[in-house]
Amino acid sequence: MAIVTPIETSDGARRRLGLASPATLEPIGEIEVQNADDVGAAVERARKEQPAWAALPIDERARVMRRGLQVLLERQDEFIEVVVRETGKPHTEAMMMEIYSSCDCLNFYARRAAKILKPEKKRLHGIMALTKQVRVEYRPLGVVGVISPWNAPLVLSLNPCVQALIAGNAVLLKPSEVTPYSGKIVGDIFQEAGLPDGLLQVLLGDSETGAALTVAGVDKISFTGSVATGRKVAVACAERLTPCTLELGGKDAMIVCDDANLDSAAGGAVAGSFMNTGQYCCGTERVYVVESVADEFSAKVIERVARLRQGAEGEFDVGAIFWPPQLDVIESHMADAVAKGANVLCGGRRNPDLPGLFYEPTVVTDVSHDMRIMTEETFGPILAIMRVRDEEHAIELANDSEYGLGANVWTRDKRKGMEIAEQLHTGSVCVNDITMTYGVQEVPFGGRKNSGVGQVNGEIGLKGYCHAEPIIVDRFGGRQVAGMYPYSRKRDERMQKLMRLQWGTSFGRRLS
Length: 512
Ligand code: NAD
What we know:
The chain is 43% helix and 20% strand. The chain contains 18 helices and 21 strands. The site of nicotinamide-adenine-dinucleotide has 30 residues, from helix 8 and helix 9.
């Protein structure tokens, strides 16, 4: 997208949406909105196909992922074109954020899933160690609904699908109506990779389709999107006791300490705030810089921002805002900040030289927590710098937020960076880097406070698409439980002796 416009349809027909490029405003296509009946039929089909897929050895499922990786590598130019057309991102950004990360994810889970999901023998403690054997098996949940946003439309759709599929589930993917063609790429990749039909179905549509999916009786919802929609998804899932993960918005803080390498920190601030035109869930939305280095830092930032090229064609660094409501949010946050005394060092307006949805890369100082630009998610190319007394003050302000997705700290002293990281109430922290946790396949990703519920990615995320099923076998063929009834005083006395042995003697404590 793109710019989404409803198209009139006759009674009883599915609704249609027209899409236009955010960069050129020219039409780029139309989609039909899948309704509750379509979603219901897709769930039914997925249920039919899923058991055979789950019964395959995990290596077979990994083979499909590896073929998917080859498809992605071979057709990357075509896919990049699709993403750029509907988002207005720079080519490099589409390649780096969407293609590279998707390849890395396919490769990572293809290579690691078998090990992560291998049945685990557990050594029990205490008296049960003598009587029971236990194995935990990771069973697929069944049918998983993936609902994704528009800001990184390919990787945020593909990544949860890869994890759910390799774990043995069937998936229904509902990409954003703003970027439906990028979502469709996921279906194309798996079709060409030889995934059996029905195991990954892409349902195009808007909130109607997404809401229908949350109540369609799937076994899990993996949702990525805004806090407001996340709450609706949580309510729908709660009513049906459907498990869900919610990866929601953020307002990431960056802390620049007085001993930071200011060139690196300025580079990090510019990348963190303007990458993906600031429409990045872990984008740097608030910079707290210790006042002794604040002027030098701001000067270095301005110098870098002056070199950024905004555009729609050829080589450029900052692209379009993906759709009009986001531009409205950005403009209202800036208007509020300026009205309350913020100082705009550069940008601060729509780009008058470009026809589409372009907001100039903006640096703003003299901001405070009375301004929406420091408290609500702006999701735009705005770098807001606030001077702070010292690092303690920065930590206090960074934690003064209803969000808690990511944060980053800049210092030459790694130990200090770690100590500050430990004091931040947020999902993850990077030291001397922009928040790039989502791209680190090994680690879990997820927000605290309003930024989310549950975690995705890595071992925790992959296991989240499974039910961890303990299988407990009695070593003595069940004789012990068979003798459990009827109760007697003698039995109670034996139990008391056992407790004394187990927790009242050094031998028993060693056993426990
Ligand atoms: P959104 O909440 O508007 O939409 C997300 C998806 O939900 C879309 O596919 C949409 O069609 C669907 N949807 C809308 N109403 C629904 C309903 N009632 N039930 C079910 N689904 C429904 O979010 P967006 O504007 O597409 O994305 C931007 C937001 O996503 C930002 O807040 C950003 O921070 C957040 N985000 C978070 C992460 C993360 O991992 N934490 C990653 C990327 C984006």
